[in-house]
Amino acid sequence: MDGTDVVAVYTAMRQAMQHAREGHGPTFLEMAITRSQPAVLLPYGRDLSNVVQYAPPQSNAGKLFDPLVRCQHILQEQGIWDEEWAAQLSTRMMTEVERALQNALRDTLQSK
């Protein structure tokens, strides 16, 4: 299944959960994705400010495979996309991710 198709993944997950709830056991779902760019690895012992230099530049072609962008288009087509909510959510998520990464780096350095 296309792992970037939010609707297909949601539908398959609902079916798998119903299958399990009816006592028929687990279901294995394989979701394939196409990477828009290589993974970014944080060199050991570096702080987060150095990540940018290792990240490849963003390309518009990658947006074709981005499940969040695809989901946004679906919601826009249905007239239920809210830019203000999306901006607030993005800010909140970036803050949480930054905090988690900083905590992980701090914990790693303290354990040495």
If you had to describe this structure to a student in words, what would you say it looks like?
The protein contains 4 helices and no strands. It is mainly alpha-helical and 112 residues long. Mean pLDDT is 80; it is low at 50-55. The termini are far apart. The protein has helices spanning 6-21, 51-54, 67-77, 83-110.
Spatial extent as radius of gyration:
19 Å
Number of helices: 4
Order of helices and strands: HHHH
Mean pLDDT: 80
Structural class: mainly alpha
Helix content: 40-55%
SSE map:
Blueprint lengths: L5 H16 L29 H4 L12 H11 L5 H28 L2
Task: Provide keyphrases for this structure.
112 residues, mainly alpha, 4 helices, 53% helix
Summarize the structure.
The protein is mainly α and 112 residues long. The chain has helices at residues 6-21, 51-54, 67-77, 83-110.
